[in-house]
Amino acid sequence: MTSPQDATPGIDIDQALARVGGNRALLHAVLGTFHESYQGLNERLHRLAEADDWESLRVLCHTLKGSSANVGAMRLSHSAGEVESQIKKGYLPVPAVLLHECLAAWDELSPTVAKLLASTEQQETYCVTATELVLRLAKLLTLIDTDLAAADSEFLALRQAQVPEKFQSDFSLFIKQFDAFDMPGAKVSLNRMLGRTSDE
């Protein structure tokens, strides 16, 4: 008998669906954003390791750990967490075997996600009201300072949403800033959408 994991190597679809409350349209949006956000991951990992840029590698693996868990990709989440842990403990350089496992997990997962996205019919639009958006943006603003992995997961779930027109310009700018890891700029945009200055 074929299990869901056998049919979708690298990802537990049941777990991923559970994380979004069984909303397949939202899962499709989250998977699409996740896959787009981590294109070129192999090159980024190699480049940061070769440059001994351990802090940037730690941040990348920290967000990757949370984002992967959010889509049910536990092998990748675990391997990214192992790399992050080595750096936090000061065990440098990171053993090549850990980097290779992280790369192998991504290589297993990436075609699975691409296949899922290609085989999924166009999904219904995921819309948020102004009230819901403000509540989620306020939560995201707090998470950026306290838990970047959780912030990344919330961002992935929110970025494909259709937001009210008055937020669209700032929301588009915020997405670009968050994607570029420009957290100071992203916080300014969040505060602007929340109707207060970044100094408050």
UniProtKB/TrEMBL annotation:
Q: Lineage of this protein's species? A: Bacteria, Pseudomonadati, Pseudomonadota, Gammaproteobacteria, Alteromonadales
Name-wise, this protein is Hpt domain-containing protein
Matching entries from InterPro entries are given as: HPT_dom_sf, Sig_transdc_His_kin_Hpt_dom
Give a single Pfam family match: Hpt
Phosphohistidine modified-residue sites: 62
Signal peptide span? none
Tell me the ranges covered by the HPt domain, including all copies.
Answer: 23-120
Top-level taxon in the UniProt lineage: Bacteria
Signal in keyword set: no
GO terms (molecular function) for this protein are: protein kinase activity
Annotated GO biological processes are: phosphorelay signal transduction system
Q: Does the keyword Zinc-finger apply?
A: no
Keywords from the named record: Phosphoprotein, Two-component regulatory system
